[in-house]
Amino acid sequence: MNVIRLSFILLPVAALAGQMLVNESAFTANADGSGPAGWTIWSARAETAPRCYVDPLHWRGKPGSLAVNGAGNTAAHGGWRREVPGVDPGAWYRFTAYYRTDGVEHESLQVLARVDWNDAKGKRTGKPDYVYRAHREGEWTKLTAEAPAPPKASAAVLELFLSNSPQGTVWWDDISFERIDAPVARPVIVASVNLRPQSTKSAAASVKRFIETIEKSAPAKTDVILLPEGITVIGTGKQYVDVAETIPGPTTMALGEVARKRNTYIVAGIYEREAHVVYNTSVLIDRNGNVTGKYRKVYLPSGEVEGGLTPGNSYPVFETDFGTVGMMICYDVFFPDPARALVNRGAEIVLMPIWGGDLTLGKARAIENRVFLATSGYDYPTQVMDPDGEVLALAAKDGEVAVTTIDLNKRQWQALLGDMRARRAKEYRVDVPVPAPGLK
Asked: What is the pTM of this model?
């Protein structure tokens, strides 16, 4: 009898997932010229109010969109709002909106969508959730955000704004807000190897030592194994260019065989030769043993430049079966832009082969970008760090492996500021020029 009663209680709750609370397009103005029913116009002050109107000429699916124009006002900030009742505290919701722009210089900053939350008295509860995930679909861009309603929330407030774009216009269309199932954990097993081969005399012998350590110390089940920088030069007594090889090449073939047998991804730093050019490169090998990505070190210290290396010029990210991966190498950690670029492009974990460096700056890179950071080094800790800068696993001794399971779906929440992954993404000042060093 108790089992039947329990099922009867749970069914209505489960059925709420997929409940559509808002699904609007084909906007039309009221007879008095005001906005559509349910929508209001907001700005902090009359002096900063943008021009808001229903535009019958610009639309995505059916005629009529919600337009916001900067009205020649640099301080203009605001736009359309809609309060949605019927929200349950702790339940998860998905907000979707499409926009297109004209005259907007920096969309990531000046086009703003977010979900605020009100309690039963109409007062804010919790913190607003910023929408930063974007996908281009022709002339329109789709924005989505998934978030739980805070404690005491009874209504969501959908906000569609334009900010500080005096000559810009944004059109909003196809707005939806629905209840969804809470996301499940997305566990990823990360293993980082601490090893410094000695007197190996050859790249192949050094690489063999790393493979032997993986076989001896890494658990049978991993999602990604991280090795240090320059595994083909460490312990050999040779120069960078002496051990440089093509990609694919002998080292990636050897590591690929390990990856295939263990059904894991492997990341390692090697020296890559392409014609006469030599790079300090980090390779990503997939579970089938194939090279699925590579990153050429952008920031080279003077010793590497003097040793004949050429810097890379991009920050690529790579899709794996467990999430989006970015790579940095050693000296990159001294500068804020590599990690920032990777996370802005969607990296959920940064894997960094490293020789030696500043641990404080490594911690800063994780915290400021709200990203997991795994490192494998010689004169730098071999560890896995979370977005709060806390060490989750550490391999302190030579031959050890730092192993931990991270959850890439973990919400990056701070009580005073809210979801920091989303806020950092929306609040980066990409519009402010950074002068070259030494120029006044």
From this structure: 0.91
